[in-house]
Description:
The complex is a heterodimer of chains A (about 280) and B (about 290). Chain A has helices at about 1-10, 20-50, 50-60, 60-95, 100-105, 110-115, 115-125, 135-140, 150-175, 175-185, 190-220, 220-225, 235-245, 250-280. By secondary structure, chain A is mainly alpha-helical. With about 290 residues, chain B is mainly α. In chain B, about 75% of the residues lie in helices and about 0% in strands. Chain B is built from 14 helices and no strands. Chain B has helices spanning about 5, 25-55, 55-65, 70-100, 105-115, 120-135, 140-145, 155-165, 165-180, 185-190, 195-225, 225-235, 245-250, 255-290. The longest helix of chain B is centred in the N-terminal third of the chain and has 34 residues, at about 70-100.
Amino acid sequence: MSNATTRTGWRFRQPSVIPGFGLTLGFSLAYLTLIILIPLSGLAWRSAALGWADFWRIALDRRTLHALEISFGTALIAAAVNVVFGTVVAWVLVRYRFPGRRIVDAMVDLPFALPTAVAGIALTTLYAPNGWLGKPPMALGIKVAYSPLGIVMALIFIGLPFVVRTVQPIIEEIDKEVEEAAATLGASRFQTITRVLAPGLLPAVVTGFALSFARGVGEYGSVIFIAGNLPNVSEIAPLLIVIRLEEYNYAAATAIAAVMLALSFLMLFVINLLQSWSRKRYG
Amino acid sequence: MADPHIETYDPEHEATSAAITESRPARAVLMAIAFVFLALFLVLPLVIVFSQAFAKGAATYLTSLSDGDTLSAIKLTLIVAAISVPLNLVFGVAAAWAIAKFEFKGKAFLTTLVDLPFSVSPVISGLVYVLLFGAQSVLGPWLKAHGIEILFAVPGIVLATVFVTFPFVARELIPLMQEQGTGDEEAALSLGASGWQAFWYVTLPNIKWGLLYGVLLCNARAMGEFGAVSVVSGHIRGQTNTMPLHVEILYNEYNAVGAFAVASLLAGLALVTLVLKTVLEMRYGAEIAATRGH
Lengths: 283, 294
């Protein structure tokens, strides 16, 4: 097939006997353009229309900066927590046999399936000062719900499956002989894990971290119930967009959204780089 | 190599080899950490949804579900899912056919674009439609003059839902159909089948479980979407309130039983989704292909 291409020079597509290319590609592109590309470029166009000075005045507004800081900061902490516990969960699910393992494995996907508003009110009720899990820390003077700590809790819930589902298949693929070789050569179990297994898992762990982080930054539904939503303290960036919209301040909503979008695309780019790097190195 | 206990991967026997597993106490500690973490973050939220929903007995639970506004929220959620899931299903099949069965320039880029909505905050997914169709937009006055309601009405909610659930079916089908290649279809065509026949009788049976898997995940998200829908809905009770939005309204009115009653329906939907997903993975794992992890 590639010979044919080089002989005839540049070609948009390689010849095939299978029909339907024009129809399916045409439909896909039209649908993609209408649903995704036009609305998103509308956002870009509207923020460009704001002008450079106005754009930065809004983007660097104190309340906006705090909201971005809270969104990115809590997402970072939650992703870090998920990396630790998510990796342990993945390890336990792959390596150990216990009754109900399949059920536990299926449960890990709950945050994907449970609507975020439901997660939000459930976590808020749990971590409220008089809730099952909120009361004990309250006795120590730590407020979980209605504080940035509550946001972290919600984002841990939302991001957990990203880490587990990225790391789990890599642990499954580990070649047992490598571990046996390490053990035969006199490594302790701890050394085998930290020196032999951990480097191989690292790319997956980093990817899981990035996915969990990216999801946490944009999360809205589960957070707004538990956050308390105090400006400059526990107000996340997506909520500030909604507040600006409700004030009919479209310019501010657009500018905040553009900053968030730029940062998420940057993260998407980094995730793609990480994935291709890990495929090259460990694939 | 001759000893099957060493050579083959046997999950039941793997713990017997002391050299490649942790000591008993270490295992116990790791399992305890994992279980406590999952119990706190996954099991308890689920338990509290149902315990709060039934906090005042089954009668109150049923009364709050049979409320008129709740029923219309359920109806709207079903309508929105019934429109947006088939739309994304058709797109998913078409995009997967174009991407998996053909080689063309810009294919990798197109595949990346399909996943784009996953990296957009739900609130922004709603905002883009407000900027496009709102009163302040270029289209706004024209829409108003012609009496077309998109924002704060069902079309806007459908559009936002379609945006958010856009990649689900396509991203399940693309790797699956790429793995299956074009051999089966080429055989069907050479035996005289038309393109449609090749699709209906050859491709579709090959991808049906993967397709169902994608639809399942797409539907769960479509019915549960909150952020994007919240921005475009206008929160008109009984008219533009979906179930997740109704949960918020009831909760903010301190009607905990009502909020958790509606939430329990959504949690039930999530549990059914998880069960079906697990069954599909167990029975048709190979036919869903490398689709684990999202």
